[in-house]
Design a protein that fits this description.
single chain, alpha+beta, Cathepsin B, Chain A, Jelly Rolls, six-stranded antiparallel beta sheet, five-stranded antiparallel beta sheet, elongated
């Protein structure tokens, strides 16, 4: 099956709900229920051949097969490590996540925050799993990956050394859900080593499908404490960190760890000497090494707090979790990360929800990889998405009317590409107000004639090589177009654009409509003058008709005489398509009137081609193809344009005249075929005979 067919089938599945958390896609086509049933029937334990218990699953460099760090590692099932292993003991808690020898504290901080909201947790960790009833050595977990949920199956063989888990473990030695979750996440990304280094928000997003905001605490907005409290109340996941001052994690004098990720698990006000004080609660995924400053466990400040407040805040447990004053928090920590959840994640009807939409897209060389706004010739070719903001926010936190939106741009496959040394693209986006003449339309694509003379109203200032960039904006009601791009042109990649708004807002690709306005050439024997007849008879056979071979020779002769266009000569396939379009009597050849129709088409196509050949090179740049198609009467979207460029452009992304003609002829055939076979729902239905006859 071609990649295009797979893409279209995948999109059709999404329309049927496949890829949601309730219909997660089996990762590597491994279906948990069927695999478990097979193991139970055979009375065997599951062995995962897609992520085997071998050194390659540990890593490729620092944890590679020749690394001293993996010496003595043995893979063991929990029943080999303790007498009575449990999946979850007394509910999933933050203390179930203690870091091992893997530098994935960012991931563990995200898991710890996940335990604060069990409705969210059970979406990732299906709770109906155990080491007793129906045990078959197989477990599964669900993660959000680039717009869809996947179900990852693993066996329960875990890396150990000297009888102890090598990586994450629970404070309760017989509990294994967190270790198995870490393994499933490692499988998703190819190895355990792929999990080294990251941002807490990456884990947040993969556990919820939410969108994350970053706050630099040295520049914290005055109302950030209110934002933290509201975010926790809405079930958002929060993490924070201190910038590293050395290559390794460093413990400061007040027992905070630089270069390390923490979870933010609470925000409250207490009365200290009868004055309100803002406190935040943090958790170190190590399970120990707690802050020793003001408001730490058993510090003197607690002696002057009301008894009922002390009891409510549970401030003295030695578990890696601690309170500190908000003022100390913004002074000691470098950044805060908040993951806002999608509407389907929240189950309570008492909380407000973001409105949410997402779009898949690709940057393809020659069609949609236009680069940033500095690339004037190609910038407008980037994918474009329109959003219509109508209603202003209720009770704005900053006191100013407007429409709040969060825009996130994520590039795909970051951690898998680490193994092969592929770097990320520098990505960003800009937002323009839609010109008045284009408002209310979704059949346009803003060109350089618009974008080069308008200033963006918002966007990302600096393009960065991150998995996702996200920014909060407040704009007046209106229509806006969001243009995501790489910094450099001709950089390929796949992306997801996500938009969260406080109020409902309609959003769609800018050029969603696909239409054709094909000119009808009404020609009869009376219209055919002597010059056309002479040209026709020069190449027609004794039957006074043009066969495929004769038509090919005639067209090659035509382009060979011209110095203003380049051509490889018309292929036999193109000539077949021409006859297929124009042959009225079905004999597989062109008569005189049919040939005259073709010649008028070619003259019109030649005029469009030369008009689009801006540098008079005799070829047309692939980036000019969109406008050329529009001149010919075809409105296509970005997806169709990418297929056209991959089919008709050469390695230099140039389009020769013969390929341009072949493209327009083929488009006309496809549009006319669709009109013949479409039903009342606007879709085609074909049986196998019809499909094969048309496709062949």
């Amino acid at each position: 099956m071609s990649s295009t067919a797979k893409f279209l089938a995948k999109r059709q599945n999404r329309e049927g709900g496949v890829g949601t958390n309730k219909k997660a896609i089996p990762f590597k086509k491994q279906d948990y229920q069927s695999l478990k049933r097979q193991c139970l029937e055979r009375k065997t334990l599951f062995y995962d051949l897609n992520f085997p218990a071998v050194s390659e699953s540990l890593g490729y460099n620092d944890l590679g097969p020749n690394s001293t760090k993996v010496q003595g590692v043995e893979w063991k099932r929990p029943k080999e490590l303790c007498a009575n292993p449990q999946f979850i003991v007394d509910g999933a808690k933050r203390t179930d996540i203690c870091q091992g020898e893997l530098g994935d504290c960012w991931l563990l901080a995200a898991i710890a925050s996940l335990t604060l909201n069990h409705n969210v947790l059970w979406r990732v960790v299906p709770p109906d799993q155990s080491f007793s009833d129906g045990y078959a050595g197989i477990f599964h977990f669900q993660f959000w990956q680039y717009g869809e949920w996947v179900d990852v199956v693993i066996d329960d063989r875990l890396p150990t050394r000297n009888g102890k888990l090598l990586f994450v473990c629970s404070a309760e030695r017989s509990e294994f859900w967190s270790a198995l979750l870490e393994k499933a996440y490692a499988k998703l990304h190819g190895s355990y080593e792929a999990l080294i280094f990251g941002k807490v928000t990456e884990g947040f997003k993969d556990f919820t499908g939410g969108i994350a905001e970053d706050y630099e605490l040295s520049k914290a907005p005055p109302d950030l404490f209110k934002i933290i409290k509201k975010a926790l109340r809405l079930g958002s996941l929060l993490g924070c960190s201190i910038d590293a001052t050395s290559a390794h994690e460093k413990v400061t004098k007040v027992k905070l760890v630089e270069g390390h990720a923490y979870s933010v698990t609470g925000a409250e006000e207490v009365h200290y000497h009868r004055r309100p004080v803002q406190l935040v609660r943090l958790r170190n995924p190590w399970g120990d090494t707690e802050w020793t400053g003001a408001w730490s466990d058993n510090s003197s400040e607690w002696n002057y707090v009301r008894l009922e407040e002390k009891a409510r805040l549970n401030y003295s447990a030695d578990d890696g979790e601690f309170w500190m004053a908000y003022s100390d928090f913004v002074r000691h920590f470098s950044r805060l990360e908040i993951c806002n959840l999608t509407p389907d994640t929240l189950t309570s009807e008492e909380v407000s929800r973001w409105n949410y939409c997402q779009f898949d897209g690709t940057w393809k060389v020659g069609s949609t990889a236009g680069g940033c706004g500095s690339n004037k010739a190609t910038f407008s070719s980037n994918p474009q998405f329109v959003i219509k903001l109508k209603d202003v926010d209720d009770d704005p936190y900053d006191g100013e009317d407007g429409c709040t939106l969060l825009v996130g741009l994520m590039q795909k496959y970051k951690r898998k590409d680490k193994r092969i040394g592929r770097s990320l693209n520098a990505i960003g986006f800009v937002i323009y107000e839609v010109p008045d003449e284009y408002k209310g339309r979704n059949n346009v694509h803003l060109g350089s004639d618009v974008l080069l003379y308008k200033r963006p109203v918002a966007g990302i200032k600096d393009f960065t090589k991150q998995r996702e960039i996200c920014k909060r904006f407040k704009l007046p009601p209106g229509e806006y177009v969001i243009i995501p791009s790489t910094y450099e042109p001709n950089r390929e990649g796949s992306f997801i654009l996500r938009v969260f708004t406080e109020k409902k807002a309609a959003a769609s690709p800018m050029d969603v409509n696909i239409t054709a306005n094909i000119l009808k050439d009404r020609i009869s024997d009376i219209n055919v003058d002597t010059s056309y007849k002479q040209l026709f008879m020069q190449f027609a056979g004794n039957d006074s008709e043009l066969s495929v071979v004769e038509l090919q020779q005639m067209l090659k002769n035509f382009v060979a005489k011209r110095t203003d266009i380049k051509s490889d000569g018309f292929s036999r396939e193109t000539c077949h398509h021409i006859i297929r379009l124009l042959d009225k009597d079905g004999n597989g050849k062109l008569g005189l009137v049919e040939f005259h129709t073709l010649w008028i088409k070619i003259q019109r196509y030649l005029e469009i081609f030369k008009k689009s050949d801006a540098d008079k090179s005799g070829t047309m740049s692939s980036y000019e193809m969109r406008d050329a198609l529009k001149y010919a009467g075809f409105q296509v979207n970005g997806e169709v344009l990418q297929v056209i460029i991959s089919r008709y452009a050469n390695k230099q992304q140039a389009i020769y005249f013969d390929n341009f003609v072949g493209c327009l002829i083929n488009l006309e055939i496809l549009f006319k075929t669709f009109q013949l076979f479409k039903n009342n729902t606007g879709k085609m239905e074909l049986d196998i005979l019809q499909w094969l006859c048309l496709a062949l």
